[in-house]
Amino acid sequence: MITILCTGSRGDYQPYIALAQQLKKLGKEVRITASKSFEPFVSNYGIEVYPVEADLYTLDIDPKLMKQASSADNPLKMLLAFNKMKDYGVLMTRDYYNACLGSELIIYHPGVTIGYFAAEKLGIPSVLASPFPINKTKEVLSVVMYGKAKSNPLSIHLSYTMIQGMLWMASGSSVKSFWKSEFKVLPKGFSKPYEKHNNENHPALISCSDHIFKRPKDWNEHIHQYGYWFVEETSDYVPSKELDDFLKQGDRPIYVGFGSMAINGKIEELGEMAIEALRKIGKRGIISGMGSPKNIGNDMLLIDNVPHTWLFDHVDAVCHHGGAGTSATGFRAGVPSIIIPFANDQFAWAYRAYDLGIGSKPLPKKELSVEKLVSAFNDALSEPIITNSKEMGRKIRLENGAYDCAEIIKKTLEN
Q1: DSSP bridge partners of 287
Q2: Residue 355 pLDDT
Q3: In this structure, are 223 and 314 located in the same domain?
């Protein structure tokens, strides 16, 4: 049995579900840790779930802390938010450790580092599986500082110290508390484990396309990046009659949705602003998860929970918050991106899309206005960006990141 330790929101789980799907194709038994909040979502894909009783949604965490963690728009705010949240991790660590018992290999999200130490204790391989580049390099800024700082040797070094430090801060203290309680003495060389994945028993896997962030040449040979990990839907998606009719009744619309970020603001106001901007440029819109905007009309459609992998193939452009998974799906669809980053690594995907010529200039949420949104829409729909986006989509669709990384895991077990 292979156990995948995962935590976070729906978007955090999706890459690991994709990895589990490919492992099952290779004949491997696999399970994913999931809280009650996400157990149905994971099991719907036919993946076994190891239940975690405590999670960020059931621990009665102060909503202010949740908002701070999901709206940190600079590195200092990120560090402070992660520091405040770390105490809650202690309550989840025991469940994660117990999930490792009886496993032949542990795969872990960089925010669940108990996976590395549990594997060492049990004498089995561990695999760091990250939804974004995390390992140190001298070539490019990490995703917490890309687009926010000038690139030089010092800033690059600091950027990886920061991203690894934040993730270690979020999980290291809880691992320490659990380990001392359970085993009295900390593991030898107890420290953040990310750079320890440097041999065939401890590889690292990255969900990212080489066409977005090229694999650094100075990574060790056991860090593998072959493309994004996209979930395979269990059946062909069939749109509702309302959605199907809307798509057939006119020009291809623009998608607008901010995922879980919308809860940090007045979602109806965000939706109304987007609708007004779309009308100014004469475009129809599909508005996702934005409540009930007052200015909705026949030229706009409100939706919830339509698979992006299907929907993005039917629109002219995608406007969103810049989550890693949503960004990747937009890139693969081959349509221009209008990214309005709210926090954390969302700025990196926004600036990278702009640098690659596949998206408009980043428009941070706090600077959002109808006029600026109109300008961003027009820029994204310009000919160079449309052409570049199509070519990027073609390249990304040729990659098979989840399968190739599953093969590495299989080889690790064989070794």
Answers
A1: 256, 302
A2: 97
A3: no
Q: What is the DSSP letter of 89?
A: G
Total structural domains within the chain: 2
> pTM for the complete prediction?
0.88
Residue (of 201, 193, 16, 187) closest to 104 by Cα position: 201
* Distance, CA of 64 to CA of 278 (rounded, Å): 33
What φ, ψ does residue 301 adopt, rounded to 5°? -130, 130
Neighbours of 344 (CB within 10 A): 25
CA 93 to chain centre: 22
Report the alpha-carbon distance of residue 359 to residue 117 in Å, rounded: 41
Q: Is there a domain that residue 236 lies in?
A: no
Cβ count near 354 (within 10 Å): 19
Residues 272, 222 share a domain: no
- The H or E element spanning position 105 is strand 105-108
Give per-10-residue mean pLDDT for the chain (415 aa).
90 93 96 90 94 66 50 50 54 89 97 96 97 97 94 96 90 90 91 96 97 98 97 88 94 89 66 94 93 88 90 96 94 97 91 98 91 97 97 98 97 92
Contacts of 244 (CB under 8 A, 6+ apart): none
How many Å apart are CA 349 and CA 330, to the nearest integer? 11
Measured distance between the N- and C-terminal CA atoms of the chain, rounded to whole angstroms: 16
Residue 32's Cα: distance from chain center in Å?
16
Main-chain dihedrals φ then ψ at residue 35, nearest 5 degrees: -80, 175
287 and 138, same domain (yes or no): no
DSSP state for residue 199 in the 8-state scheme: B
Report the 10 Å Cβ neighbour count for 173: 16
